[in-house]
């Protein structure tokens, strides 16, 4: 018996199977890998196709906010720690750990500097925030950018998972230094 790919099975689920999540008034502070709302007040929500159009036309900066896994503190002496590679949207800047609900002043400064780099200092330049599917990190980061005064904020809730599902290109990226 042939098995359908998981992506096709998910598309076959009825629309009511998706969890309806209300948009909170403030940042999400915990359970960052959970269903996300369909909206972000002040931002434009885009799917992979719209994001690809922005990417292909060079119409927006792309900011990946997937957090970086911390090095376990209890590794035995001499253990080699290798960070997991991040495959992301080509040309995206990776600013890990900026999508938490509460961030330290140092992380805030890192995020602001990264956004300045990504947008060339133009707070009116379109910028697309993403992470993975069902990840609040990108929602929080996009909301924070709006709070900073960025005017063309896009949020790709499906992240690189949705991007890859459409067979759009991915490339390995390195985290922006200083984070």
From TrEMBL:
Residues 1-17 form the signal peptide. Keywords: Signal. Residues 89-172 form the Rhodanese domain. InterPro entries: PQQ_CXXCW (IPR022376), Rhodanese-like_dom (IPR001763), Rhodanese-like_dom_sf (IPR036873). CDD domains: RHOD. NCBIfam families: PQQ_CXXCW. This is Rhodanese. It comes from Roseivivax isoporae LMG 25204.
């Amino acid at each position: 018996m042939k098995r359908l790919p998981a992506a096709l099975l998910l598309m076959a689920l009825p629309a009511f199977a998706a969890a309806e999540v209300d948009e909170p008034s403030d940042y999400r502070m915990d359970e960052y890998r959970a269903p996300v709302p369909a909206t972000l007040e002040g931002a434009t929500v885009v799917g992979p196709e719209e994001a690809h159009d922005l990417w292909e036309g060079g119409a927006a900066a792309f900011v990946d906010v997937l957090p970086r896994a911390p090095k376990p503190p209890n590794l035995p002496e001499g253990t080699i720690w290798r960070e997991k590679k991040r495959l992301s949207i080509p040309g995206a800047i990776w600013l890990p750990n900026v999508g938490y609900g509460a961030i330290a002043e140092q992380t805030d400064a890192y995020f602001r500097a990264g956004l300045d780099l990504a947008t060339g200092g133009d707070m009116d330049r379109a910028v697309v925030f993403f992470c993975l599917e069902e990840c609040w990190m990108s929602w929080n980061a996009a909301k924070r950018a709006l709070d900073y005064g960025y005017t063309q904020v896009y949020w790709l809730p499906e992240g690189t998972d949705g991007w890859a599902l459409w067979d759009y290109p991915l490339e390995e990226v390195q985290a922006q230094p200083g984070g």
